[in-house]
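Checklist before submission:
- one chain only
- standard amino acids only
- sequence pasted in full

Submission:
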Amino acid sequence: MVIWLRAVLGALLLLTGCASAPTSPPPVTSPLWGYWLTEDGESIVELQACKDNSLATCGHLVRFTEPPDTRDYLNSNWLEWGRRLCSAEVVRGLQPDVAGKTWHEGRLYDPDVGDTYHLSVELSQNVLLLHAFYGADSSEAVGMAINTAISGPSIWGAASFLTRALIGEKSLGEDIVWKRVSAPATRCDADPGSNSRS
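Returned file contents:
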């Protein structure tokens, strides 16, 4: 009797629209995603979801003036040193704020100098205002605490960290403007495997 009653109630709920078949959630998108012309007008970066986190935004170099097989010999990260610049990740980990109008906690890699900066972004129509700055983050604070516990405090290290943490975003950076563009007719990564180390 109970099984029959559950079946009848279930059928009634489906007929009246009170219950529905499970559906998959809508795909997550971001107004940042697309193609952006860098400030110098020579490169295009494609912003899209990071591979490891659909809420974060990452960006890869898809067009620039150098030959597609140009290598990154300025990168201070030895794991990325010597990689091809074509398809290289130059924007990493941008997180949206609650209102979805600004993004923060990202990193911007500048292949012209080999430096990585902290990054916050604001979108205004088809213009992206990037604020790249020397800052301090929690992983650096943890490393500093471990180093202090092992070898004692470093006054200069603490002063550098505190300066960057307190005034880095406001005083130790620059504003950069990127403009939204259509997908480039030719991409440097048109050849499969163009980001290989060989």
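Reviewer check: Residues 27-134+172-189 form a domain with the Lipocalin fold (CATH 2.40.128.520).
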